[in-house]
Every structure is written in structure tokens, then in C-alpha cells.
Write a structure and sequence with these properties.
The chain is 98% helix and 0% strand. The protein has 1 helix and no strands.
Length: 105
């Protein structure tokens, strides 16, 4: 029976060893999972920061574009007003020349 006891003891040791190996493997896998989760969270954070930065840049560009459009509109308005003034001056000159001609005659 001593041989049987030894065999039983070896089986128990073997099971314990396998169980320890299994637990070690599970811990390693758990560690890898946690590392991967950490990496994914970091990537997501970076992506969100990049997205927020891009949105901010877009809003800034939109604002600049709006300002440029307003300036352009203002310049066009000024150009129109100048044109009208030029036209009025020209009509006034023609009117004066016409009056002068009439006076000469």
C-alpha cells in the first residue's frame, strides 16, 4: 500500500502543480487584458482630444471666414457708394458744362 500512497501523493502533487500553472496563466491573461484595456482607454482619450482640438480649429476657421465675408461685404458697399458719388459728380459736371454752354450762346 506504500506504493499506492506514493502514487496518490504524486497525483495530488501533479494536480496542485497543474492548478498552480492554470492560476498563473489566468493571472497573466488577466494582466494582459488589463494592459489592453488601459491601451484602448488611452487611444480613446487621444482620439477624443484630437477630435476636440479639430472642432475648436474648425470653429476658429468658421469665425475667420465669417469675418472675411463681412469685410468683403463692407468693401463692396463702400465701392458702390463711391461709384454713386462719382456718377453724381459726373452728372453735376455735365450739368454745369451744359449751363456754361447755354450762357456762352
Amino acid at each position: 500500500t506504500g506504493l499506492q500512497d506514493t502514487q496518490v501523493y504524486q497525483q495530488i502533487l501533479l494536480k496542485s502543480y497543474h492548478q498552480l500553472q492554470e492560476e498563473k496563466l489566468q493571472r497573466e491573461q488577466q494582466g494582459e487584458l488589463e494592459q489592453e484595456e488601459k491601451r484602448q482607454r488611452k487611444l480613446l482619450e487621444q482620439h477624443e482630444q484630437k477630435h476636440a482640438h479639430e472642432e475648436k480649429r474648425q470653429r476658429k476657421l468658421q469665425k475667420q471666414l465669417q469675418q472675411l465675408l463681412e469685410q468683403q461685404e463692407e468693401q463692396q458697399q463702400q465701392a458702390l457708394e463711391q461709384e454713386e458719388q462719382q456718377l453724381q459728380l459726373q452728372q453735376l459736371r455735365e450739368h454745369h458744362q451744359h449751363q456754361l454752354q447755354q450762357l456762352r450762346e
